[in-house]
Automatic annotation (TrEMBL):
<dbReference type="InterPro" id="IPR032675">
    <property type="entry name" value="LRR_dom_sf"/>
</dbReference>
<dbReference type="GO" id="GO:0005615">
    <property type="term" value="C:extracellular space"/>
</dbReference>
<dbReference type="InterPro" id="IPR001611">
    <property type="entry name" value="Leu-rich_rpt"/>
</dbReference>
<keyword id="KW-0677">Repeat</keyword>
<protein>
    <recommendedName>
        <fullName>Leucine rich immune protein (Coil-less)</fullName>
    </recommendedName>
</protein>
<dbReference type="InterPro" id="IPR050333">
    <property type="entry name" value="SLRP"/>
</dbReference>
<dbReference type="Pfam" id="PF13855">
    <property type="entry name" value="LRR_8"/>
</dbReference>
<keyword id="KW-0433">Leucine-rich repeat</keyword>
Amino acid sequence: MQCICVSCIIEDLKSHDEVLLLKYTPEHIKNIYLENVLIHHIDQSVLQHFPSGFSCLYIQVSNSMKRISVPTYLERISIEKAGLRRIDIAANSSLKYLQIIECDLNKIPRTTRLATQLKIVEITGGRLRGLDLAHFCPNSRLRVLSLKRNRIRYVVNTSKEYCGLYDSLEGLMLTGNLLVEVKMELLNVFVAMDNVFFDNNRITSLAGRLINHSVEMITMNGNNLNYVDFCSWNVSSLDRITLEGNRLTMLPECINNLTSVQVLSLGSNLLPTSFTIDSVAGMDSLRLLSLSNNRLTSVMLNSVRFPKSLQYLDIRYNNLTSLDLSFIPVRSFRVDASFNQISCLDVLGTSANVSKLNMYNYPADCSWNSELEREYLKCNYTCN
């Protein structure tokens, strides 16, 4: 046993005879770290020997431990790289944070319903196959539900009545699962929802009508979406939506309905070879637009129909051979056009509203970061 400040580390706990020695743990200890636990079941017969005031239990690299019974007084439990298959949580539990990483759980513990003080549940790298949001209805203080890198194939809500969870849940993280379809209307009941993460699944379609006035960020990077329709969405607080690494062959339908969105990321898709800025002109709040790593050969920016708040355009890693920046109707506009095939750039004719231009990976770098750099720029790509 090694103790520092309010924490103790105990390794290779393997018998109940050794457990009796735990009574010598200093009384002021709050955090207990158990490494390589060789006991099959951690229960009150083990935990009762720790100081009465300890509230946080961390168990790491313990393949032999299959089960844990959580007493009422523990507030935080973190179990990582263990053989854990079962968790029993006592009624009237004080548990606020439950973290399980790379264990053998194949279902959400049924007794999490008894932990009504829970604020964060994180189960990462497990074997969960599905999620029924109704399971967490009794957890009316739960703020974050993170179930990343499991094997989840479906998300449903079988509750037939109001859940306290609807008022508390702020973040839903389902990154790295096996979802193919997402029913967006499932999010409509969550009035405090801020962030939704569906990255790196196998999603091919977004079904249903999303009506949510609290959600601020939705990320769906690394899926198989080839078509997205926003026409039935009503998301007045949505600030950021990222759809990078999908198979989109066109801009999402009704993209201009998203008037609150400030960041739109559509990089690494299969967008058409030609893009015109007026196609997103109705996005009044848009500040950053990413179209990097598509197959664009033409970007038309010279239009009076221009997103009025746009400040940054990312068009790196495309197939552009020219870039016309002669008419840009918004001030302090920044462009990153690096890693294209641009052979013609009219520096003298470029709008004064272009405050920064990146053109890295060209024989002659026509980049500038300030008005002074632009004034003294020597660039071989000036058009005839």
